[in-house]
Write a structure and sequence with these properties.
The complex is a heterodimer. Chain A is mostly helical. Chain A has helices spanning about 1-40, 45-75, 80-100, 110-130, 145-165, 210-240, 255-264; strands at about 195, 200. The chains are: A mainly alpha, B mainly alpha.
Chain lengths: ~260, ~55
């Protein structure tokens, strides 16, 4: 049982590192697109990508703020919930403040990603997991939203893992040079083709046949996802065989594997 | 792990709704703290160790 628990915790840590990586790379990818547009189409043409970054930041922060306000209204019945929501708010604010003042590497987009992720985790905890009826007015209801959002986060991180493992020249390699305002990413390199945050013209598959390139990438992507799901199912097998509560949900093992990656 | 409430389902008892429980709740909350602290670390680490290569 403890093998399953420890393994699953490691798994969650992996997923979080991947999410932070996505946050950094998203910003860098759009900054690079902005630079590229300036080079190709002339000055001030890159503004639309910078605007897209600002709009994304605004959406992320507005959604987080709305979530926190909704939680304060509906789930502030008891002390534990109050503490969780306040800690979410304070930690997110600290992260954003540190990023804006002290940090050289971060960007507001990355902070926004982490803030909305924190808000989702807090919401899932207080709205679907809290076992005390006084704290949780939604107790007993099936919460479709938390499963959907959880699977969405899992899907994003799985896709990203697949893509970044299959491209040999990772954007993540330039992570430290991404300065939120300067935006000199990709300028001094040999201008790799960037599509959706992923460097496409890698040497393994070549650049000539894009269809083949995509198929090969898709294959590796599915393989990585499959391995991840299999590993989590394996952890759950340990869990079932070693706990007193066994052989009841055997049919649900596979579901559990997928569900675990998504919603813990 | 979610379905078994992190192996604590026999303590919390409710097989019909194993998702609800202290263990699951604390997993989410601690996961949130760890995620934000990890991010904070990626922000301050380059400042604390300027000589180290973080690329």
């Amino acid at each position: 049982m403890w093998i399953a628990r420890v393994g699953s915790v490691l798994f969650i840590l992996l997923q979080q590192v991947i999410l932070i990586d996505i946050g950094y790379n998203w910003n860098e990818s759009w900054l690079a697109k902005s630079d590229q547009a300036e080079l190709d189409e002339g000055p001030r043409k890159g503004k639309k990508w910078l605007g897209a970054i600002i709009v994304s930041c605004a959406i992320l922060y507005i959604c987080s703020l709305a979530g926190i306000i909704i939680m304060y209204i509906h789930f502030s019945g008891c002390q534990s919930n109050n503490a969780f929501i306040s800690i979410t708010l304070i930690l997110s604010l600290i992260c954003t403040a540190v990023q804006l003042t002290i940090s050289e590497t971060g960007s507001l987009l990355t902070s926004g990603c982490m803030t909305i992720y924190a808000t989702y985790l807090c919401g899932a905890a207080v709205a679907t997991k809290n076992p005390l009826p006084t704290c949780n007015p939604m107790l007993g209801e099936t919460s479709t939203w938390s499963i959907v959002v959880g699977l969405l986060f899992a899907l994003i991180s799985l896709t990203w893992t697949g893509f970044s493992y299959t491209s040999d020249k990772r954007l993540g390699g330039a992570a430290a040079s991404g300065n939120g305002e300067e935006g000199d990413v990709g300028g001094d390199e040999e201008e790799p083709t960037i599509a959706g945050g992923v460097v496409l013209n890698n040497s393994t598959y070549g650049t000539a046949d894009t269809t083949q390139n995509h198929l090969a990438r898709l294959g590796s992507l599915m393989q990585v996802s499959l391995v991840l799901v299999c590993v989590s199912v394996l952890f759950d097998l340990f869990q079932y065989t070693h706990s007193t509560f066994s052989n009841v949900f055997d049919l649900l093992l596979v579901c559990n594997g997928i569900d675990f990656v998504g919603g813990y | 792990m979610a379905l078994t409430s992190w192996g604590a389902i026999e303590k919390n008892g409710d097989i019909a709704n194993p998702n609800v429980g202290e263990a699951s709740m604390w997993m989410l909350i601690v996961a949130q703290w760890v995620a934000l602290l990890l991010y904070l670390w990626t922000l301050v680490a380059p400042r604390l160790f300027p000589d180290r290569d973080f690329t």
